[in-house]
């Protein structure tokens, strides 16, 4: 049997989004976050389709009209109705693997990042989509608590993650490092796990998801966030993470090619002043392009340059994510890629 976890750069059928609802925590920012997600849909559909989960038929009708007005071809999106708690498709969407040459979509347990937020509807969302015939690949439920933002795959059997998240007792109490490695080896085909012990972002609810800190761009390249300001409270932990990354080795013993992302100036919530988790590592790889979060910051341009260096041959597309970080996530957190062969092709036939 062969089993592997796809890397994000594997060819994709679509990107999954879950649209915000007026009864969620997005209510005070609904117009802003909808404008951001509309910009994402327009950008993504230049390259591939999107699967958009909406909470009712009324929203489906409204978004269909809105996308028509924005010039989005109807064959490039599908609106599926299913109840949800929030918008973070990265963590409640399915995780795709290839088993003996066929795709399986693994449906892990989602608990709202260790019970911090209501998540029952989000946890049921993948099964709801499966019951509607959205997926061409089988959906396989897993008993393990696991979020897509917590893991990074090189597509060759190596997984990058953080101890602060995967070993947090609020996820899978009773499972130690060896047990987690064994489970992910069996379920995802992981042969090696690279654990980061340092690194965090203030305002992050996820207990240090790796997709806010360090990302594979190809099997030999990792981009990561670096704080150059010794006065910033993140400086020491991110310097320690940088040292860890420099010490990591590929399976053949060679070091990784490391590219440092710049550090944006501190962003604060305008209502209560708490710090928001702005990070350029939360980019999204799609067919032919990379969407990169920006924050109206002087460092935005340098971040785009680094991503361009990491992804030769792909277009780099900035997306303003100042509204997204108000709810403590960013661009990657809003999305889940669905590899080629995951979806029923009839969804995009108009």
TrEMBL record:
GO terms for biological process: putrescine biosynthetic process. Keywords: Hydrolase. GO terms for molecular function: agmatine deiminase activity; protein-arginine deiminase activity. InterPro entries: Peptidyl-Arg-deiminase_porph (IPR007466). This is Agmatine deiminase family protein. It comes from Salinicola corii. The lineage of its organism: Bacteria, Pseudomonadati, Pseudomonadota, Gammaproteobacteria, Oceanospirillales.
């Amino acid at each position: 049997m062969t089993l592997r976890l796809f890397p994000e750069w594997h060819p994709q059928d679509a990107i999954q989004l879950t649209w915000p609802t007026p009864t969620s925590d997005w209510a005070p920012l609904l117009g802003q976050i909808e404008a951001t997600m509309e910009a994402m849909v327009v950008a993504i559909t230049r390259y591939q389709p999107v699967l958009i989960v909406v909470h009712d038929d009324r929203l489906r009708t409204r978004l269909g009209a809105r996308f028509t007005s924005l010039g989005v071809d109807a064959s490039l999106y599908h609106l599926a109705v299913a109840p949800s708690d929030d918008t973070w498709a990265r963590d409640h969407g399915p995780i795709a693997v290839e088993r003996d040459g066929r795709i399986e979509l693994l449906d892990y347990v989602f608990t709202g990042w260790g019970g911090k937020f209501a998540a029952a509807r989000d946890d049921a969302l993948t099964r709801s989509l499966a019951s509607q015939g959205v997926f061409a690949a089988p959906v396989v439920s897993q008993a393990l608590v696991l979020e897509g933002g917590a893991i990074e795959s090189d597509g060759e059997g190596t997984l990058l993650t953080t101890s602060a998240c995967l070993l947090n007792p609020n996820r899978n109490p009773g499972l130690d490092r060896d047990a987690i490695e064994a489970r992910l080896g069996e379920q995802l085909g992981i042969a090696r796990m690279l654990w980061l012990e340092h690194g965090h972002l203030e305002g992050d609810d996820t207990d240090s998801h790796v997709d806010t800190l360090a990302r594979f761009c190809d099997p030999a390249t990792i981009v990561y966030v670096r704080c150059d300001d010794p006065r910033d409270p993140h400086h020491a932990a991110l310097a320690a993470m940088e040292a860890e990354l420099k010490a990591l080795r590929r399976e053949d013993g060679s070091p990784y090619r490391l590219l440092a992302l710049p550090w944006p100036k501190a962003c604060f919530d305008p209502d209560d002043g708490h710090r928001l988790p702005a990070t350029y590592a939360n980019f999204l790889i799609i067919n032919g392009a990379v969407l990169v979060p920006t924050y109206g910051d002087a460092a935005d341009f340098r971040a785009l340059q680094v991503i361009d260096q990491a992804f030769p041959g792909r277009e780099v597309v900035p997306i303003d994510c100042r509204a997204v970080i108000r709810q403590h996530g960013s661009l990657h957190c809003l999305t889940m890629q669905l590899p080629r062969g995951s979806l029923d092709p009839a969804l995009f036939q108009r």
